[in-house]
Design brief:
Helix content is 6%, strand content 31%. The longest helix has 9 residues. It is mainly beta. The protein is built from 1 helix and 12 strands; from the N terminus they run ββββββββββββα.
């Protein structure tokens, strides 16, 4: 059975989704749905790569062999930032837009739980470690996140100056 690659699209000068969760050794395609060209890259340790200036769809998907957090950028549009969380296990969950995760049953051998968010106050490359006993529907976990600073792009400066 052929496994379909995950998709990290580019729409309206943004990565969509802004966070993509995949398993180790997964393939990811980077279609460009904008009517302009993008230059996607990452310098992140788990997967440094570069897709030079292109439109449409690159020839082949990229394989993410190593677990970790891959921060994406566009060399043309500084405001474009996206994240690929490459999980090294099959018990990784992504929250909904309200920050909630519904887990029916935790694995019996679970010793630690790790939580990650791109805007954690500790930094984008950090995770919070919890004991499974700290998880309960009655006591939601509150993350200490910070609002990311505005990205200075030519377009943002231009609009502020002349509007």
């Amino acid at each position: 059975m052929k496994v379909m690659p995950s998709i990290m699209d580019q729409i309206n000068k943004a990565f969509v989704p802004d966070v993509l969760v995949i398993s180790k050794d997964s393939l990811v395609e980077f279609p460009n749905s904008d009517n302009i060209r993008h230059h996607v890259y990452s310098f992140s340790k788990p997967k440094p790569f570069e897709l030079r200036l292109y439109s449409g769809k690159p020839e082949a998907p990229i394989r993410f062999e190593n677990p970790g957090i891959v921060v994406l950028g566009c060399n043309i549009h500084d405001s474009m930032v996206g994240y690929i969380y490459v999980a090294d296990n099959n018990t990784t969950y992504q929250s909904n837009h309200r920050g909630r995760v519904q887990i029916e049953a935790l694995p019996d051998a679970l010793e630690r739980v790790y939580i990650w968010h791109p805007n954690l106050s500790q930094g984008v490359d950090q995770r919070i470690e919890l004991n499974p006993e700290q998880l309960s529907p009655e006591h939601p976990i509150q993350l200490d996140i910070i609002k990311p600073p505005p990205r200075n792009t030519f377009e943002a400066r231009f609009k502020r100056k002349f509007n």
